[in-house]
Backbone:
């Protein structure tokens, strides 16, 4: 049985191997992706983002726990901002502490960005497609951080959860503003702590049409309600429009990467040295390369 | 006098207009950039990044204040992660509260990402080049957030400052790990607060070769020392290698964007609808477009 068939049969080891191929071999992984693609589109993609300290990992762990009790197969993709420099060790370690690490019904993957500009959205998309092809029922994509990339990745999901927690300080509150607009569901974690009521009022004042669910991820309170709110959104109208919008973004990015492949003979370092010393301006170089 | 000449003469209104042209008109702004480029390369670019809540804006304000006392002309570029959704209003408001807003020796610009994948590094680069051409002596680039984009932008500077503060919690500590490696200078802000000593020890244990300066940005303590540490790094070896590395990244990105321009006739929305319904796979589409 070839690798694609093994992935389609739900073999998690084959899935892991396919993931490594897609991450490392770029274009050479295309035949595999092409073969698997028609078998995708059935899984539910849930993006989980929010400010640092809100307890996203604990929440993901609880979601996985509940979904396992319903006998769903669960994929977890942890997008790790530390990776370009530290090799993803930080989040990798955190992942290994999850109680589901040894559960064959849960497939966990930490995505390293490896310093590539713009590459993480593509890599995350392809990993999610592989998991989809392997028959995982729900994929939880956790992004750590509040930057543009994290926001884009969260948007790639069918439903995006923004996790907030009381008592994170004014500046963190301000940062949240950037991710408020992408929320399909707000989850207030640590909702037993002081400030949770005020936070809930503030959210409802800012985004009155988005459901707000209070949880205490550390003891599992409210997790069922949060999943119910997510499911309601999954079945709401607009899912197809969202998928089209997402694919439109991805196609543009994939085309850009593909086009650049034809220019692999350019010595960018040599060109950059000339630009740095102002021997030539970058626009003249672009004209030369593309004429 | 044409716009380029006015920018070169240090006319800040012309600089603002040039910035708007570069931000909004894309390729049509190239003749202007091409004319100004040979006159750039003299300014000092200082990137300031760090976890939310560390007090970066206050620090930038203090740096600007000190540099103005030395009669330096200062540019401030605030990269705003909230912009794709809220139009940059948040940071824009914060900027307007800075005491230098009315000082003609300080030029402040808030950069909106406008939801474009990968575009913010290019936009920031071009804005910095314009400020450089206008004769600003020092440019402070403040990035809010801890994502991949923010880290890339911080790296585009000649010197990168990572701002930390005590008492930000374990998760925030963890996030910091992702930006530790890009620091040329660490600044511990709020260094009069509990935990500052431990934070300093932790940083020194992790990155022993990077200078650590303690400041209290709200009252200006330590700002002179921080600027001295930054200047020492600016004059250290490796600056040219770094500029080449940065231009190498930027050239690759510029080429990618340029190549995509030839495909403006593609109806990505229509193509995305076919992919979303699995009528066609994205790889087949890419083959068709580029064959």
Residues:
């Amino acid at each position: 049985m070839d690798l694609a068939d093994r992935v389609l049969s739900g073999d998690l080891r084959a899935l892991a191997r396919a993931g490594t191929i897609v991450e490392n071999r770029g274009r050479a992984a295309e035949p595999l992706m092409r073969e698997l693609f028609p078998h995708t589109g059935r899984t539910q993609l849930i993006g989980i983002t929010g400010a640092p300290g809100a307890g996203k990992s604990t929440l993901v762990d609880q979601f996985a726990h509940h979904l396992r009790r319903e006998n769903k197969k669960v994929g977890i993709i942890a997008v790790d901002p530390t990776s370009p420099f530290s090799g993803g060790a930080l989040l990798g370690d955190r992942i290994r502490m999850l109680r589901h690490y040894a559960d064959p019904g849960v497939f966990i993957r930490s995505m390293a960005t490896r310093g590539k500009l713009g590459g993480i959205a593509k890599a995350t998309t392809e990993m999610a497609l592989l998991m989809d092809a392997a028959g995982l029922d729900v994929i939880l994509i956790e992004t750590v951080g509040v930057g543009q990339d994290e926001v884009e990745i969260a948007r790639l999901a069918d439903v995006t959860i923004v996790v907030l927690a009381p008592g994170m300080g004014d500046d963190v509150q301000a940062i949240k503003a950037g991710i408020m607009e992408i929320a399909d569901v707000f989850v207030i974690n640590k909702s037993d702590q002081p400030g949770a009521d005020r936070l809930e009022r503030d959210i409802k004042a800012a985004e009155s049409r988005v459901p707000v669910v209070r949880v205490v991820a550390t003891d599992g309170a409210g997790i069922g309600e949060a999943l119910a709110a997510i499911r309601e959104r999954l079945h709401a109208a607009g899912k197809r429009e969202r998928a089209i919008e997402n694919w439109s973004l991805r196609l543009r990015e994939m085309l850009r990467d593909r086009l650049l492949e034809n220019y692999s003979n350019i010595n960018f370092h040599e060109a950059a040295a000339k630009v740095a010393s102002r021997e030539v301006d970058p626009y003249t170089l672009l004209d030369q390369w593309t004429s």
Q: What stands out?
A: Residues 83-93 of chain B have pLDDT under 50 and may be disordered. Chain B touches chain A through 84 residues (CB under 8 Å). The beta strands of chain B are 44-50, 74-80, 106-112, 138-143, 159-164, 185-188, 212-214. Residues 42-236 of chain B form a domain with the Rossmann fold fold (CATH 3.40.50.300).
